[in-house]
Design goal:
- By secondary structure, the chain is an alpha+beta fold.
- The protein has a single domain (5-111), classed as Glutaredoxin (3-Layer(aba) Sandwich), CATH 3.40.30.
- It contains five helices and four strands; from the N terminus they run αβαβαββαα.
- A four-stranded mixed sheet has the order 2-1-3-4, sandwiched between helices.
- The N and C termini lie far apart (40 Å).
- InterPro entries: Thioredoxin-like_sf (IPR036249).
- This is Related to Glutaredoxin-8.
Length: 114
Amino acid sequence: MAITLDIARKEVAELLKNNRFVQLNASWCPDCVYTQSVFRKYDVIDKVKFFEIGNYRRGTPEFENYYLAFQEAANKKNLPLIFVDGKFIATEHTFHDWESQKVLKQKFKDLGLL
């Protein structure tokens, strides 16, 4: 069965509702690889649910509809999109900013990751 936009929206809403930490991810995306490396560095990667959009071929209805559903949930077009408690909180830019400001560890503590 094809994934329609309505189905994708419902599945994304359920994913965000049922998982405290979620990242829209693609294994071919260098920014996604970076955020995963940050989660690994702080030994919290097992706390994050990754939705691997890279499992779908770009341009297919599945890829496009899931991507749009995540974009709508975040009100942002990006990869990765990181959510906490169902709310969009970060992209890789956010992580870079937190690292350069030397507040990333504290931000992770504040979010309940550490």
